[in-house]
Amino acid sequence: MSEDTKQTDQDLADEWAAALEEQDDTQSDNADWDDALAEQAAAEESAEQLAQTAKMEKLSDNGHTRADVNLDMVLDIPVTISMEIGRTRISIRNLLQLSQGSVVELDRLAGEPMDVLVNDTLIAHGEVVVVNDKFGIRLTDVISAAERIKKLR
Fold this sequence. Notes:
Blueprint: H1 3-57, H2 66-75, E1 81-84, H3 92-96, E2 114-118, E3 121-131, E4 134-142, H4 145-152
Antiparallel strand pairs: 1-2, 2-3, 3-4
Protein backbone atom coordinates (compact mmCIF):
# COMPACT_ATOMS: atom_id res chain seq x y z
CA MET A 1 0.00 0.00 0.00
CA SER A 2 1.25 3.42 -0.84
CA GLU A 3 1.76 6.23 1.59
CA ASP A 4 -1.06 8.27 -0.02
CA THR A 5 -3.55 5.41 0.35
CA LYS A 6 -2.63 4.97 4.03
CA GLN A 7 -3.04 8.70 4.61
CA THR A 8 -6.41 8.74 2.80
CA ASP A 9 -7.61 5.74 4.80
CA GLN A 10 -6.47 7.42 8.02
CA ASP A 11 -8.21 10.67 7.06
CA LEU A 12 -11.38 8.75 6.24
CA ALA A 13 -11.20 6.89 9.57
CA ASP A 14 -10.71 10.18 11.42
CA GLU A 15 -13.74 11.68 9.64
CA TRP A 16 -15.85 8.69 10.61
CA ALA A 17 -14.67 8.87 14.20
CA ALA A 18 -15.50 12.58 14.34
CA ALA A 19 -18.93 11.98 12.81
CA LEU A 20 -19.68 9.18 15.29
CA GLU A 21 -18.54 11.36 18.17
CA GLU A 22 -20.78 14.16 16.94
CA GLN A 23 -23.70 11.73 16.68
CA ASP A 24 -23.12 10.58 20.29
CA ASP A 25 -23.18 14.23 21.42
CA THR A 26 -26.47 14.77 19.54
CA GLN A 27 -28.00 11.64 21.10
CA SER A 28 -27.01 12.73 24.60
CA ASP A 29 -28.51 16.18 23.87
CA ASN A 30 -31.72 14.43 22.73
CA ALA A 31 -31.73 12.33 25.90
CA ASP A 32 -31.38 15.52 27.95
CA TRP A 33 -34.34 17.03 26.06
CA ASP A 34 -36.40 13.87 26.58
CA ASP A 35 -35.64 13.95 30.32
CA ALA A 36 -36.55 17.64 30.53
CA LEU A 37 -39.83 17.12 28.67
CA ALA A 38 -40.77 14.17 30.87
CA GLU A 39 -40.02 16.22 33.99
CA GLN A 40 -42.12 19.10 32.70
CA ALA A 41 -45.05 16.78 31.90
CA ALA A 42 -44.89 15.30 35.40
CA ALA A 43 -44.85 18.77 36.95
CA GLU A 44 -47.86 19.86 34.85
CA GLU A 45 -49.80 16.72 35.83
CA SER A 46 -49.01 17.30 39.50
CA ALA A 47 -50.14 20.94 39.26
CA GLU A 48 -53.39 19.86 37.56
CA GLN A 49 -54.12 17.34 40.32
CA LEU A 50 -53.54 20.02 42.97
CA ALA A 51 -55.88 22.39 41.15
CA GLN A 52 -58.61 19.72 41.00
CA THR A 53 -58.20 18.98 44.71
CA ALA A 54 -58.46 22.69 45.51
CA LYS A 55 -61.67 22.94 43.46
CA MET A 56 -63.19 20.00 45.35
CA GLU A 57 -62.34 21.57 48.69
CA LYS A 58 -63.89 24.97 47.92
CA LEU A 59 -67.09 25.66 49.74
CA SER A 60 -70.26 26.53 47.90
CA ASP A 61 -72.54 29.41 48.87
CA ASN A 62 -74.50 27.37 51.43
CA GLY A 63 -71.38 26.14 53.29
CA HIS A 64 -71.41 22.59 51.92
CA THR A 65 -68.48 21.11 50.06
CA ARG A 66 -68.95 20.10 46.45
CA ALA A 67 -69.12 16.44 47.54
CA ASP A 68 -71.96 17.30 49.95
CA VAL A 69 -73.88 19.07 47.19
CA ASN A 70 -73.52 16.03 44.92
CA LEU A 71 -74.70 13.78 47.76
CA ASP A 72 -77.77 15.99 48.27
CA MET A 73 -78.70 15.42 44.62
CA VAL A 74 -78.45 11.65 45.07
CA LEU A 75 -80.60 11.67 48.19
CA ASP A 76 -83.67 12.70 46.15
CA ILE A 77 -83.46 9.80 43.67
CA PRO A 78 -86.41 7.42 44.17
CA VAL A 79 -85.67 3.73 44.74
CA THR A 80 -87.92 0.67 44.90
CA ILE A 81 -88.05 -1.15 48.22
CA SER A 82 -89.65 -4.57 48.41
CA MET A 83 -90.06 -7.32 50.97
CA GLU A 84 -89.70 -10.93 49.97
CA ILE A 85 -91.34 -13.73 51.94
CA GLY A 86 -89.79 -16.45 49.80
CA ARG A 87 -89.40 -17.92 46.32
CA THR A 88 -90.17 -21.06 44.41
CA ARG A 89 -89.68 -22.47 40.90
CA ILE A 90 -92.58 -24.11 39.13
CA SER A 91 -93.24 -25.12 35.55
CA ILE A 92 -95.47 -23.09 33.29
CA ARG A 93 -97.91 -26.04 33.24
CA ASN A 94 -98.30 -25.84 37.04
CA LEU A 95 -98.49 -22.05 36.93
CA LEU A 96 -101.40 -22.20 34.48
CA GLN A 97 -103.23 -24.68 36.76
CA LEU A 98 -103.23 -22.25 39.74
CA SER A 99 -106.64 -20.95 40.74
CA GLN A 100 -108.24 -19.17 43.65
CA GLY A 101 -107.41 -21.03 46.85
CA SER A 102 -104.30 -22.75 45.42
CA VAL A 103 -101.31 -22.93 47.74
CA VAL A 104 -97.79 -22.30 46.46
CA GLU A 105 -95.02 -23.68 48.64
CA LEU A 106 -92.11 -21.26 49.19
CA ASP A 107 -88.47 -21.97 50.02
CA ARG A 108 -88.74 -20.41 53.52
CA LEU A 109 -89.92 -21.79 56.82
CA ALA A 110 -92.72 -20.16 58.83
CA GLY A 111 -91.28 -17.55 61.20
CA GLU A 112 -88.09 -17.13 59.17
CA PRO A 113 -87.13 -13.46 58.57
CA MET A 114 -88.15 -11.76 55.33
CA ASP A 115 -85.66 -10.19 52.91
CA VAL A 116 -85.72 -6.41 52.47
CA LEU A 117 -84.58 -5.49 48.96
CA VAL A 118 -83.77 -2.06 47.51
CA ASN A 119 -83.69 -2.10 43.71
CA ASP A 120 -83.42 -5.91 43.94
CA THR A 121 -80.35 -5.73 46.24
CA LEU A 122 -80.61 -7.37 49.66
CA ILE A 123 -80.02 -4.77 52.37
CA ALA A 124 -81.67 -6.26 55.46
CA HIS A 125 -83.76 -9.00 57.05
CA GLY A 126 -86.88 -8.30 59.05
CA GLU A 127 -90.08 -9.61 60.61
CA VAL A 128 -93.66 -8.72 59.78
CA VAL A 129 -95.47 -6.40 62.20
CA VAL A 130 -98.93 -4.83 62.19
CA VAL A 131 -99.15 -1.12 63.05
CA ASN A 132 -102.53 0.69 62.93
CA ASP A 133 -104.05 -2.15 60.87
CA LYS A 134 -101.27 -1.93 58.27
CA PHE A 135 -98.46 -4.39 57.65
CA GLY A 136 -94.90 -3.28 58.15
CA ILE A 137 -91.47 -4.74 58.70
CA ARG A 138 -89.23 -4.46 61.73
CA LEU A 139 -85.61 -4.70 60.59
CA THR A 140 -83.77 -7.34 62.58
CA ASP A 141 -80.48 -7.49 60.67
CA VAL A 142 -79.03 -4.88 58.31
CA ILE A 143 -76.47 -6.09 55.78
CA SER A 144 -73.22 -4.09 56.03
CA ALA A 145 -72.07 -1.99 53.09
CA ALA A 146 -68.95 -4.14 52.71
CA GLU A 147 -71.06 -7.31 52.39
CA ARG A 148 -73.37 -5.66 49.84
CA ILE A 149 -70.37 -4.62 47.72
CA LYS A 150 -68.99 -8.19 47.88
CA LYS A 151 -72.30 -9.53 46.55
CA LEU A 152 -72.25 -7.06 43.64
CA ARG A 153 -68.92 -8.44 42.41
